[in-house]
Structure formats: structure tokens, C-alpha cells
Design brief:
41% of the residues lie in helices and 24% in strands. By secondary structure, it is α/β, with parallel strands linked by helices. The protein has two domains: 208 residues, P-loop containing nucleotide triphosphate hydrolases (Rossmann fold); 127 residues, 2,3-Dihydroxybiphenyl 1,2-Dioxygenase, domain 1 (Roll), CATH 3.10.180. The protein binds guanosine-5'-triphosphate and magnesium ion (MG). The site of guanosine-5'-triphosphate has 17 residues, from helix 4 and helix 5.
Length: 388
């Protein structure tokens, strides 16, 4: 691991700030660092906070971050302004916030304004989010104004999206972009200290009653006073926790589409191994010798999956080397995925180590191997059946 990456993993705030700037500027060295750190990611909860200009998003993010810090959680805040409407005032506000948290190594705050280009901001936000995740931050909070396409993309990064509404919007609730309404997992009615909170809530309820999807929670907040913040965090937890709506939906979707195709087990003696599995009721569906891999194979169906017993047919086969190094045991796990090319692209983006380009095996299936260093210690084979 490079020195830079090591420092970031150790929580060095200065190294992280330098990396964030490099990533924003698409500096090749920083992007290399991002790839190097990718295997450490995947732990952070990513929250999106979106809403109209001046709704109190920054104040709310501040209050959320402070509450999380009190719980001992580390937090990164990314404030994004895709509309280029950032005035001196808004930037000044963000600067004051940064001073408040100055010196707290568990807190990282970065503001990004559009530089006139389109699309680039969503990408930079994604990269910055991955950097913060890999650096070990428990929460990444992304603040963005809910107006355009960029924000919808930015909010796509979030596991949970909070849409901030305020009293006085009245009928304007109807006018809020349908796209933004659709992405809300939780609604915060902020500035609930001002008249009209009841009315916005009624409008919102009425609008949600027309929708088919599960009802998002509605939480009233007064961000300036810290009121409703713990309720908001609870509502967010309901969505993103292991039993949350979002998590369950994704799990169902993923587990329906992916299957364990087979478990590959390296053995010294195929005959002995087969007779063991026969003694617990399994039967080999077929035997073969794969010349290319220098390996003899017995496939034993187990429900929808199989156990693949592998015995080297030559001393220089990879399985023989595996046996020498590790002894007999689990050699690889093979997952069947619906779209191998898409999986490969996601793996590449996250910096995973692929051992080969996707290639076609006998029978027309596509497969790729992923190095154990990226998968938690076991060689992973990804397979797509019937890939024409
Ligand atoms: N009365 C009241 N004022 C609030 C509340 N929350 C925020 N404000 C005020 O609303 C103003 C805008 O707050 P910000 O947090 O900067 O709003 P924002 O949505 O981040 O604004 P932009 O980033 O410019 O879109 C500030 O003056 C806040 O002090 C609240 O709950 N009640
Ligand atoms: Mg703001």
C-alpha cells in the first residue's frame, strides 16, 4: 500500500483533504489512490439531503452530523451545488460551518460548486463519496439542491434520500418535481417553527395517498434548534438498516437474480472424495478432464447448485499449485449472475482485481475470475449462462 493510502486509512485528515482535492480535479495520482483504496469501501451509510434553495438543508445536515458525532460516528459532508447559483453568501455559510468543526478529525466537510460543465459534478460527487467510504467514514451526507437532472444522479448514490420541505410552500408541493418526490425515502418538514407546517404536511399526505409505493416517513424538524433530529435519524435508520425497506428490496432483487452455481473443492484423490459425497446421498452428474486447466472434474448436483470436485491431472496445473500451497479445501465459489458485462464494469469501477477478461467456456457460458484479495479471501468465479 502506498504511504498516502496508509495515512488515509489511519485517519490522517490532511492526507484525506489532499486526496479529495485531487479526486475533484481528476488528478491521475489521486484517481490511482481511489482505485487502491476501493477494496476498503462499502461500509459507509450514504444519505442524500435534497430540497429547495434555502429550505435549511445545510442547517439540517449540520445538526445530523453533530448528532452522529455525539454517537461516536465519523461523518463526511459533501455539499453540492450543481446550479452554479452559489453566491458569496452560501459559500460563506459553508465556510462558517467548516470552522465550527475545525479540528475534529472525525468530521470532513467539502463544498463543490459546478464549474459550468454538466455530468462532471455527479461523477466527482460519486468519486468523493467512494473516497470517504474507503477512508472509513461511517456516514457520508450529500447535500444538494433538488432541481435538475444532476441532483437525481447525485441522489442515486445515496442509500437513503431525505427531501426537505418547508411551510409556506402550500400548493407548491404539487409543483415539486415528480422525480424528486419519487426518490424520497423520508420527508423532513423543516422550519416547523413557522406557520403552515400543518398545511404542507396535509398537502404531502394527500399527494402520497395517490402513490402506490410504500409511504415514506414524514418528520417535522426545526434544524436551527436541533428539534426532530433524533426522530429524523430514526426514520433514516428504518430505511437503511439491515431490516429496512431499501435493504430488503435490494436483497430480494439480488438474491433472485444471482445463484451459487457451484462450489469448487480441490482434492488430492477424486475417487475418495466422490465416494464421501456419495455416502451422504449425492451422485456425480458427470466426470470430465479439462485439458486446458489440467484438471479432472466431478460435478455433483446439490439442489440448484453443484459441488465441483477438482483433482489435478498434471503437476503444473493451477489446482496442483493450490494444493501445494493450501492443502485440499475450498478452491473457488462460482456465482451465476444475470449480466456478466455489467458486473465486470461495476467490479472494475470499484477497483476489484479481475484475473481474466470475460471469456466463453464450453457450452457458451461466459466467465471471469476475481482475485481472492478483492473478495474476502476466496477465488470467485462469475458466470453468465446462455451469453450469446
Ligand atoms: N426558522 C427557522 N429557520 C431555519 C431553520 N432551518 C434553517 N433555517 C434558516 O434558513 C436559512 C437557510 O438555511 P440553510 O441551511 O443555509 O439552507 P439551505 O437549504 O442549505 O440553502 P442553500 O444551500 O442555499 O440551498 C438560514 O438562515 C437558516 O438559519 C428552521 O428550522 N427554522
Ligand atoms: Mg446549503
Amino acid at each position: 500500500m502506498t504511504d498516502w493510502a496508509q495515512k488515509i486509512r489511519q485517519g490522517d485528515a490532511r492526507s484525506l483533504a489532499r486526496a479529495a482535492t485531487g479526486v475533484e480535479n481528476r488528478d491521475p495520482q489521486a484517481l490511482g489512490l481511489l482505485r487502491e483504496l476501493a477494496p476498503y469501501g462499502g461500509h459507509a451509510r450514504v444519505l442524500g439531503i435534497t430540497g429547495a434553495p434555502g429550505a435549511g438543508k445545510s442547517t439540517l445536515v449540520d445538526a445530523l452530523a453533530a448528532a452522529l458525532r455525539k454517537q461516536g460516528k465519523t461523518v463526511a459532508v459533501i455539499a453540492v451545488d450543481p446550479t452554479s447559483r452559489v453566491t458569496g453568501g452560501a459559500l460563506l455559510g459553508d465556510r462558517i460551518r467548516m470552522q465550527q468543526h475545525h479540528g475534529d478529525p472525525g468530521m470532513f466537510i467539502r463544498s463543490m460548486a459546478s464549474r459550468g460543465g454538466t455530468g462532471g459534478l455527479a461523477r466527482a460527487t460519486g468519486d468523493l463519496t467512494r473516497l470517504m467510504d474507503a477512508a472509513g467514514k461511517d456516514f457520508v451526507i450529500i447535500e444538494t439542491v433538488g432541481v435538475g437532472q444532476d441532483e437525481v444522479e447525485i441522489v442515486d448514490l445515496a442509500q437513503v434520500t431525505v427531501v426537505v420541505l418547508v411551510p409556506g410552500m402550500g400548493d407548491d408541493v404539487q409543483a415539486i418535481k415528480a422525480g424528486i418526490m419519487e426518490i424520497a425515502d423520508v420527508f423532513a418538514i423543516n422550519k416547523a417553527d413557522q406557520p403552515g407546517a400543518d398545511r404542507v404536511e396535509r398537502e404531502l399526505q394527500a399527494m402520497l395517498s395517490l402513490s402506490e409505493r410504500p409511504k415514506p416517513a414524514i418528520v417535522r424538524t426545526v434544524a436551527t434548534e436541533g428539534t426532530g433530529i433524533s426522530e429524523l435519524l430514526d426514520a433514516v435508520g428504518q430505511v437503511s438498516g439491515p431490516h429496512g425497506r431499501r435493504a430488503q428490496g435490494q436483497q430480494r432483487q439480488n438474491s433472485a437474480l444471482c445463484h451459487i452455481d457451484h462450489l469448487g473443492i480441490a482434492v488430492k484423490n477424486l475417487g475418495e472424495a466422490v465416494s464421501f459425497y456419495e455416502s451422504i446421498g449425492l451422485r456425480p452428474a458427470h466426470h470430465e478432464t479439462v485439458e486446458q486447466e489440467k484438471v479432472r472434474v466431478a460435478m455433483l448436483p446439490v439442489g440448484e447448485s453443484r459441488i465441483e470436485l477438482l483433482e489435478p491431472s498434471a503437476p503444473d496445473s493451477t489446482v496442483a499449485k493450490f494444493l501445494e500451497k493450501h492443502g485440499p479445501g475450498l478452491h473457488h465459489v462460482a456465482l451465476r449472475v444475470p449480466d456478466l458485462q455489467a458486473a465486470v464494469e461495476r467490479l472494475r469501477a470499484s477497483g476489484a482485481r479481475l484475473l481474466n477478461e470475460p471469456r466463453a467456456g464450453a457450452g457458451g457460458h461466459l466467465y471471469v475470475f476475481v482475485h481472492p484479495a478483492s473478495t474476502g479471501g476466496v477465488l470467485l468465479e462469475l458466470i453468465q449462462e446462455n451469453a450469446q
